[in-house]
Amino acid sequence: MTPVLRFLRVTVHLSQIAVLAAAVFTAAGCAIPQVPSRTVYEDPVNFVRLELDANVLPEWPPGHFTHPARFSQEQVRRVLMGLTVQEHRTMVQRWIGDDSRRLPMFRDAEIMILVPQLVEALRLARENERVTYYLSQPQTSVKRTITSGGMYIRGTELHFILGNWQTLYGIPAYGMIYDRRYPMNPIISKGFDLFFDLDQALVTQTTSIWDGLLANTKDELVIDLAIVFPGQNI
Predict the structure, then answer these.
(1) pTM here?
(2) 175: left (phi over 0), alpha (psi -120 to 50) or beta
């Protein structure tokens, strides 16, 4: 083999190695971090699972969730049926009377799926795990509407998060699919407020002016279950 041919052969090998290395580094850089989780229920379009909450520190017991928690199906159904969603309106819109109607957060069929699975998830949850839920309805082969979020118990208070509500999601032809991987995260800017039908059970939260401008003031409800279910074990 001539020196020229030997040089060209070595150059080709080095180029192939460089391309392979670049592909490996690119794939590593684009990998989607996986939230550690345990599946409680899953079917082709819905799931309920337990996710590790990195903000709950093992060395700080006051910050732990009150898990596991035992609730009856009737109690969980009562809470879900009392949750409503309203399209967000600014203060000026409310002042001139431009207010939208409150709608049930969950459809009857969704409540039938969620109730037994949330009861089981709360029973299995550890002190550093939150319960997440994901409900979807295929619209086409590449689009679906999703409702997703999470919840956890602290003391007698239920913290209920709605990440997405009947949101249309276009499944990408390639790349990262976030809606199933991160059910608590909104895939678009939130444009809704959350309500519960028993006002006296709601725990007031402090929010910033930025939350108000971005319609994020009521994306998490804190409900005192001792008021919702007086005289019952919570």
Answers:
(1) 0.78
(2) left
